[in-house]
Amino acid sequence: MSGLRRLCIVGGGTGGHVFPALALADAVRGRWSSSEVSFIGAERGLESKLLPERGEQALFLRMHSVQGAKAVQKLRVLLWELPRAVLKIRRHWGAKQPHLVVGVGGYASVAGVLAGVLCRVPVVLYEQNAVPGMVNRKLARFCRKILLGFSDAAKGLPESKTLFSGNLVAAAIRRVRWQSHQPPVLMVLGGSQGAQILNDTLPAACKLLRNNGHKFRVTHVAGSQQRVPALLDAYAEAGVDAQVMGFCRDMPKLYGEADLLLARAGAMTVCEAAVVGLPGIFVPLPHAADNHQFYNAQSLVTAGGGVVIEQGDLSAELLAEHIGELLFDSKRLLQMSEAAHQTQPQDSEKRMLDVLGRWLEVNA
Fold this sequence. Notes:
The protein is globular. It is an alpha/beta fold and 364 residues long. The longest helix has 23 residues, at 71-93. The protein has two domains: 6-169 and 345-360, Rossmann fold; 173-341, Glycogen Phosphorylase B (Rossmann fold), CATH 3.40.50. The chain has 14 helices and 13 strands. Strands 3-2-1-4-5-6-7 form a seven-stranded parallel β-sheet, with helices on both faces. Strands 10-9-8-11-12-13 form a six-stranded parallel β-sheet, with helices on both faces.
């Protein structure tokens, strides 16, 4: 192989697909500086905002999901939108077909992978969650390799094609390791959707802990700047020292200052906590496809690095009980930190790039 190597990353929709795709693009460019990376996503997905902001080369498709859709929409997508999208991609590539397509999941991934197959371009899939998504399950037959963020995901995929690489966590976060603080710090993440139930429940739980004489601090990422004033008022009423922000652009700093995490259980949240060794209390999104957030969190629970509270059981009292058992026991937190840290490979980037290098490496 010689000359410029082209990679096309296809898929997206939510942050759980888009941010790993961006991290993968950065890693590829870091190893192969002369490579050309482009993207294919959906007009309605988060990628339509983030990719232009980064100045990425991207094609956006007008497509809808079929999961949970009515029969009429499914037929429209499969018989009209999908064929048109595949044709649009092939025209977009023209004579500059990629040397490799990587599908990261989401409905736009289907058209990108099928276009790659029709153009005889090798396809690699990247499954971030502990339960493979419907798209990746359907596309598995067309790919050369499937990179897994969680080892448990292999159960639903062809064994000969899977490789447990771990999820691709940003280098700045991988350099952070858990340490104890006094007073201890509870870090709260609700993801881009804000996890309003955590916003509503936690201040009351913190008030119960304060009433029991516990001293601690809270760092709360609310998911929206509009939610910040009400949360600040709630924490002030509870008598809790809290830093509240709508979003955070310095996650390594936030992780480095935390003793315990309270969060949803998206794949990247769980894996970032694991890489840092940050013990967590996870409240999985109950309506996530295939209940994948519950199984993401179970990877840490089984290892001893986390606790799961199902949303239907969540209350201020139960949350205060779990936080109280963990946040003020530095010895137990250290044990949980070490257990969590063992669940994710520390060389995920190398594992992934070694696979992609089969098609992206340029021989002298």
